[in-house]
């Protein structure tokens, strides 16, 4: 291959990256992202993505027409083969509507990494190792960008949109077996037109016939990089529901399971202190649940100790510590996902109210059952990563 050929190849993947990120042609693309796209899309499929340059979803007939307009003539079987390859690499989704019409659409670039690393991966696979390295470099670039302009990001944190919703891990204390006290400071008024989101794992599981579980992509990533999770050895902990469950199972990212198995896995997740993060369709808590991530403190980029960028999530709860019952054992300090609990001068636990995401992990593990959960209207909690001065 000549230098000119290599440049043409690179340009092809830069263009594919522009399309998948929605960037304008000519936008400078980070080389890490282009590298990820190069692996996920493959040499034979980059040009195919030109069909999605102006629109992200099509029926088969619309897709044929869009390809034709781009000067690409493919049979339906050839199109389906490309779609299947791209779907198995997290680039596309091919799902039928309620009317039975299959829609072919591209996914956000984050889904490439998420889906590929949801599999039971071979940590010695060269392609997987290359993807893991590129993803790590991309994450570090984002971390450095925030740290270098920390004041700017901090001043605009109110603009960060939530991508998930935290729900309580348990309503029963692990040590005492007693119920965790749920308090309501004042009546919560809910507009009649608002649909209240499900508040427990059990409620969500009961709603869906199709449930799938895959590996945690964050912990898989850490494992490939040679630094496996120190908090849990649970591998399968990433849940998808309904249409998303069918899609992830179809393309090998997950496996379909029963409600009973799902609840059994969640019991283990709870006992390892993982935080339940619910993903809703279009990040709208009034719409259906798509997935639940179960996040640890040392691999998840939304946990404060590992946080890359300012984050925001919805919650309906806030932890409240009864200092009369608190013995200062420090269990809650150790377990807190957001590192916002510390012992004061009196050896009593205190938490930063503004940054509490209401996960209830501290209340579940408190040996004195000294932590209650205060129910609040649905609210947004925004958190900055620690400033590494």
Automatic annotation (TrEMBL):
What InterPro entries does the record point to?
4Fe4S_Fe-S-bd, 4Fe4S_Fe_S_CS
According to the entry, every stretch annotated as the 4Fe-4S ferredoxin-type domain falls at 317-346, 347-376
A Pfam family this chain is assigned to:
Fer4_21
Q: What is this protein called?
A: 4Fe-4S ferredoxin-type domain-containing protein
């Amino acid at each position: 291959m000549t230098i000119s050929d290599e440049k043409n190849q690179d340009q092809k993947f830069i263009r594919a990256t522009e399309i998948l990120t929605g960037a304008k042609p000519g936008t400078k693309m980070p080389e890490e992202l282009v590298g990820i796209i190069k692996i996920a899309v493959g040499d034979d499929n980059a040009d195919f993505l030109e069909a999605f340059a102006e629109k992200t979803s099509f029926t088969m007939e619309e897709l044929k027409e869009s390809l034709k307009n781009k000067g690409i003539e493919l049979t339906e079987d050839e199109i389906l083969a490309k779609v299947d390859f791209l779907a198995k690499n997290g680039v596309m989704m091919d799902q039928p509507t309620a009317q039975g019409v299959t829609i072919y659409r591209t996914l956000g670039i984050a889904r490439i990494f998420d889906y590929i690393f949801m599999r039971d991966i071979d940590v010695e696979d060269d392609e997987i190792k290359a993807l893991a390295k590129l993803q790590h470099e991309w994450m570090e670039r984002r971390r450095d960008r925030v740290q270098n302009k920390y004041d700017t990001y901090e001043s605009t944190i109110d603009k960060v949109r939530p991508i998930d919703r935290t729900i309580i891990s348990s309503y029963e204390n692990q040590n005492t077996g007693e119920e965790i006290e749920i308090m309501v400071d004042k009546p919560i008024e809910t507009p009649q037109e608002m649909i209240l989101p499900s508040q427990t794992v059990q409620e969500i599981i009961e709603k869906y016939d199709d449930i799938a579980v895959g590996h945690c992509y964050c912990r898989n990533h850490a494992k490939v990089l040679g630094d496996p999770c120190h908090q849990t050895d649970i591998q399968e902990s990433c849940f998808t529901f309904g249409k998303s469950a069918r899609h992830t199972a179809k393309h090998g990212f997950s496996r379909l399971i029963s409600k009973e198995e799902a609840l059994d896995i969640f019991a283990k997740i709870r006992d390892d202190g993982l935080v339940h993060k619910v993903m809703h369709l279009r990040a709208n808590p009034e719409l259906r649940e798509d997935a639940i991530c179960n996040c640890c403190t040392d691999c998840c980029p939304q946990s404060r100790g590992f946080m890359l960028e300012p984050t925001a999530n919805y919650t309906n709860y806030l932890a409240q510590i009864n200092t009369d019952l608190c013995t200062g054992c420090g269990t809650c300090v150790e377990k807190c996902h957001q590192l916002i609990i510390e012992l004061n001068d009196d050896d009593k636990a205190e938490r930063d109210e503004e940054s509490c995401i209401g996960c209830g992990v501290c209340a579940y593990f408190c040996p004195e059952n000294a932590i209650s959960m205060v129910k609040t209207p649905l609210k947004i909690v925004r958190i900055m990563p620690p400033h590494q001065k």
